[in-house]
Design a protein that fits this description.
By secondary structure, the chain is of the alpha+beta class. It has five helices and nine strands; from the N terminus they run ααααβαββββββββ.
């Protein structure tokens, strides 16, 4: 289930030990206003939401993807992209078993699709982030509930966020690919989790190209 933006923001504020008072000071508003936003009692403008998310190192909400789904904002941007692309939301087990089939998305492959203005270079899919291994105490952070778009047509290189499959698991894992002394590792953004070596049996499936969350 996708989480509301304020639920994600509230969790990251707790992780980074940022109080409502401190966030209010950063935003130039009252602590009460921040409290109402984080409790879902009031919905600020999209610009305000994105500013708050930026203060937490979170990706901003997409404002150019139209949706008729209840609970979703439909904000008209200044210049909309000319095309939109539809990608399936799949499970972590399905991502771990990803293969280059002739038919991109067989019938019944996924019951859920999300729209993006990003044109993938290869086959692409969405995953819903699970757990807190990519939730950082500071800086870039991708908390549980975020939607991440994976492009399998981009070469994974050091510094990119990637989806990989470890030989001992049937599920995919989400980490940052880093290089040290000529060796590659899968590094979580949360320092409480271990960094894993990229072995010959490790399969790098794709690169994260877009992140978003539902309002």
């Amino acid at each position: 289930m996708n989480r509301k933006w304020y639920e994600v923001a509230r969790q990251v504020m707790e992780t980074q030990e940022i109080s409502q008072e401190e966030m209010a000071e950063r935003m130039g508003v009252t602590p009460g206003a921040v409290g109402h936003w984080l409790n879902g009692k009031r919905e600020p403008k999209i610009e305000v939401i994105n500013r708050l998310l930026g203060e937490l190192g979170l990706p901003i909400l997409a404002t150019s993807i139209p949706s008729s789904e209840p609970g979703m904002h439909n904000v008209a941007p200044t210049a909309q992209p000319s095309r939109f692309y539809r990608y399936p939301v799949i499970s972590w087990v399905e991502a771990g078993g990803w293969s280059e089939a002739v038919e991109p998305y067989p019938a019944g492959y996924s019951d859920t699709f999300e729209i993006s203005d990003y044109k993938a270079k290869g086959r692409a899919f969405w995953l819903v982030v699970r757990g807190d291994s990519m939730t950082a105490p500071a800086g870039q952070s991708i908390p549980e509930g975020m939607l991440i778009l994976v492009d399998t047509g981009i070469e994974p290189t050091a510094g990119k966020l990637v989806i990989a499959k470890l030989p001992e698991s049937n599920e995919a894992t989400f980490k940052k690919l880093v290089e040290d002394a000529g060796r590659y590792f899968l590094k979580p953004l949360n320092p409480a989790y271990p960094t894993l070596p990229v072995t010959e049996d490790c399969k790098l499936i794709g690169v994260i190209r877009q992140m978003t969350m539902r309002l």
